[in-house]
Write a structure and sequence with these properties.
Rossmann fold, 2 domains, alpha/beta, six-stranded parallel β-sheet, seven-stranded parallel β-sheet, 15 strands
Amino acid sequence: MKELLQLIMAFCSRCALRLCLPFLKIKTDRVLFQSYREKKYACNPRYICEALMDLCPNGVEVAWSFREPERFSFLKERGIRVLKAGSWEAIRYALTAKVVCVNTYYKPTLPRRKGQVQLRTWHGGGAYKKVAEMEQLSALKRLSIRTQLSGATLYLSSSRAFTEQTIRASFGYRGEVLEIGMPRNDMLINGVGEEKAEEIRASVGLKEGQRFALYAPTYRDDLKADGHGLDCARLKSALEKRFGGEWALAYRGHVFVKGGDVPLTDLSDYEDMQPLLAVADVLITDYSSSMWDMSLRFKPVFLYCPDLDTYDAGRGFYTPVGTWPYPLARDNGSLERNILNFDEDDYVRRVQAHHAALGICESGKASRLAAERILAETKVKSAGNVL
């Protein structure tokens, strides 16, 4: 009943807003960004925006909409307009921007406009867990997602497998795809530099010389943060035995998962995950596409999947988890053994083969290429350079 009511409200909203369109002309130099349903200044839209501002700091009107705009007032100093999500001003910008760039499904309440570029970046690379049409969904949920997927005119892709399995098969999209990689991954491919790395490490409380493992489980429908039985003391001991040195462990929850009881330093509120991956020595995850991001650094990724059978039955995967290059464990004992027996050379070979099998498209310059495409759509000339 809740999903039906939401669909009815979305339909009514679209119809009402269509009546306003003759009075709201598209502004050819206006670009609107949203990330994680207007919760964050993060992920691919963030890096595209920053490249756009470097290329053309004064020629494009850039805006972001947020649920909590007061948290992002610092963007105003960069000449970015900060809007309150759901306000008439935010709706007006969404209907008049030449380019709208988002990293999730898009609002079903807004009509799609002819002449507007809807750039969808999604928020994960590779091709792992199923999404949208490939999931096991109720008829109403499927209709709701189709409504949110509608209107896309351009997608970015990290691999040919992502293009075919996620964008084409799961999203049902048949339009143009830029296979240039995820803008958020440029820093992982190119590196952040020693000075920046130390700055990130200091921001999360790491001591000099201390090694860092990040535990980042994916989204689950119960929206509850949970350590899933991870034995942190055993994990830390195994890391120290295999890799040496002193280790710090931290937890990073999915942006749509509520806080819970996880026995680790909680970095879920750290605005953007990529800097954490840029300095992490090891990633522990389950089905999160962060494994793809981390693999671009060829750093160890260990899968801890105690609920694999349940998750597979409810969500499903494009390919069996056992075929991925990351050592798989269903319990703490297996995770410990995988760490202690980790073979770095074999792991690198497997990751390279995995990249080749998926048809990797990561370029290390996706932010600039996407920003240049936006400028081409707005017909504003670049005034700067992005390396």
